[in-house]
Amino acid sequence: MRDAVLPIGVFDSGVGGLTVYRAINELLPNESLIYLGDTARVPYGTKSRETVIAYARACTGVLVDQGVKLVVVACNTASAFALETLQEELPVPVIGVVRPGAFAATVRSATGRIGVIGTPATISSGAYREAIETMRPDAQVFTQACPLFVPLAEEGWTDGEVPEAVAREYLANLRAHEVDTLVLGCTHYPMLSATIAHVMGPGVCLVDSAEETARVVRDTLEAMDLVCDDTGAPHLFLASDSPENFQKVGGRFLGRDINPVQWIDLGVCPKIPS
Q: What is the per-residue pLDDT across 232-252, written as a single tens digit (0 to 9) for each?
């Protein structure tokens, strides 16, 4: 089928969504991928719902113009605020990262005591709590915003005394509530998974939303008979600011060089609600 060779579009507010890109690429190595990082306006985690929706529309509009067959919202904040809007407006399937991670947590938790960490906007949106409680009404959900994890991941400070001290401060309340499952509700956080796992202890299962989202992408394409069987699929990286910085930081997330990265002008100024 011709449409099967069309690319998958992935977007995030910055480089964090490369953890989702990597998971999709590992699970579906024959797929062509277009990744868009809105690095000019990162982070989304401190923005209003209206602003995030406007930014998400701009990013996905570019991907649709590129002829993608499916869009992945690889940003927890955009998934929490804009997913339903995008699913209603776009002509292709749109998959977010919240529900896959929430579902995995409900399945893996033995006690129903589930923790969620994320950006302030993702946590305040209640998206994970709502999804988990809908899927598993007996669950008890405990949440914690961990904003400093993002710059630590981007600077490559993923282990050692500094990230461990920050993790112990952020995760103390979740440890006190004896959660047995912890959702990494930000695409940056898998970079710190070893430190988070060490602080939480061996009895806590970490859920990486990136891996769970990749499985949903595979299942969706299989159901639509759109899995690509070709090899050597091209990949394209787009950034709305400083391709050089995207290459540098993004390389830490993928563990390899990213080249080339194209600059893209998203040119959107969201209307401030009255």
A: 678 999 999 988 889 988 888
